[in-house]
Amino acid sequence: MPVQLNQADFDRCVNEAIDSIPDALVSLIDNCVVLVEDEPPPDEPDLLGLYDGVPLPERDSGYLGDVPDRIWIFRLPILRRCRTEAEVVDEIRITVVHEIAHYFGIEDDRLDELGYG
Fold it and tell me: Number of helices (H) and strands (E), helices first, in the chain?
């Protein structure tokens, strides 16, 4: 049975996952927001997170950064996947790190090798 976790508690877990990232990395993040949505796009119902933007290594002098990059964390697929609140906290942390890694230009193959796939 999926874990029941209200929006406020889920948001708190996302914030704690972000806070657990070393300050040296967080200080490099610019013009990027993290958003929590209940469901992913209909064509990808099992997606846990999504990064949309221009990865840091691809930014050049033409990058104006008018629209912030976005990281979405999808609450309901994470809750459906987990059986305990501890699993939810761990899955949120993995998903947040995975999507922030995309911001830094790290591809899925490398994330899989690191255990964040």
Answer: 5, 3
Neighbours of 70 (CB within 10 A): 15
Rounded to 10°, the helix 7-19/85-103 angle is 50
Count of alpha carbons within 13 angstroms of residue 57, beta-carbon side: 7
Q: How far apart are CA 79 and CA 85, in angstroms?
A: 9
Using one digit for the tens of pLDDT, what is the confidence trace for 7-20?
999 999 999 999 99
The tokens describing 95, both together, are 């998903």
pLDDT in tens, 86-107: 999 999 999 999 999 999 998 8
